[in-house]
Specification:
Layout lengths: L3 H14 L6 H11 L8 H22 L1 H15 L5 H22 L1 H5 L5 H23 L13 H11 L9 H11 L4 H23 L11 H25 L6 H18 L1
């Protein structure tokens, strides 16, 4: 059974690394092997616990953007009634962006779960994560049509951003980093790319939680209580992380996080190996 301290530490890491583009899954797979935490070694056992931490993050994202989600859902209702608004249109952009990862996650769920016990793979993908963000950041700086708002986003572009979210199914590749890179690739500003990344993360995280969290029912593997505690800590940390990052990306780029991700990956490769 996971201890209280371990659950709190993993919750803190999840709340920070999920939204900071550093791959919470990758770090959560590596960390127990670096500091010798006692965690289930099987992906089928550890995955429901990790998804419970993600549930806390997803709820924090929903609460942070609750007013915007209210407008989006209201826009959907108006859209169904025949009145097409910008809020309704943005709702459909989130839907289009959520389709690729939703389908791939269901189809490849079992093969991907085996990666949750392989810290060396996660470390390598952390390096790849940094390279992806660095390349995306450089390409964005060379574009002539940067600084788009979400109101200018097309459904085909939203779907392309959603393709980047597939990468986040692999431990070590960041959801926010990948989708922000995709957003920058279609010309969104850094802040709008972050905003869309956080919006599209909410339904996919909550959907994954619906599948995995029930496996903790009845304290299976002794993970129910640690998962609840870790989820609360992850949620509180994620809310603060979101608030910070939405301000940060008004004036800053992805480059710093790309370098940090590569440094973490190299350090993890050395230590774990």
């Amino acid at each position: 059974m996971l201890g209280v301290v371990t659950a709190v530490v993993l919750g803190l890491v999840q709340g920070l690394a999920e939204l900071f583009p550093l791959s919470s899954l990758g770090i959560l797979v590596i960390l127990p092997h670096v500091v010798r935490m006692t965690v289930p070694q099987s992906g089928s056992m550890y995955l429901p616990f990790l998804v419970a931490l993600h549930l806390g993050t997803g709820l924090a994202l929903f609460l942070y953007f609750v007013r915007e989600w209210y407008r989006l859902i209201r826009g959907l209702i108006l859209w169904i009634g025949g009145r097409h608004t910008e809020d309704g249109r943005l709702f459909w952009m989130v839907v289009w962006a959520s389709i690729p990862a939703g389908i791939v996650g269901l189809v490849l769920k079992n093969p991907l779960s085996h990666l949750f016990g392989k810290p060396l793979w996660a470390a390598a993908f952390l390096i790849a994560n940094g390279l992806i963000m660095l390349i995306g950041d450089r390409l964005h700086q060379g574009r002539a049509d940067t600084g788009k708002a979400l109101t200018e986003l097309k459904s085909s572009q939203a779907f392309r951003i959603g393709l980047f979210q597939i990468l986040a199914l692999i431990p070590g590749l960041s959801r926010s980093g990948s989708t922000m890179t995709g957003g920058l690739g279609v010309g969104l500003s850094y802040r709008e790319a972050a905003r869309f990344s956080f919006l599209m993360a909410t339904p996919i995280i909550l959907a994954a939680a619906l599948v995995e969290v029930p496996k903790l029912h009845g304290g299976v593997h002794g993970l129910l209580l640690p998962a609840l505690l870790g989820g609360v800590v992850a949620g509180a940390t994620a809310w603060l992380s979101t608030r910070f990052l939405m301000q940060y990306f008004e004036h800053h780029r992805l480059r710093v996080f790309a370098v940090i991700s590569m440094i973490l990956g190299v350090a993890a490769l050395v230590i774990v190996h």
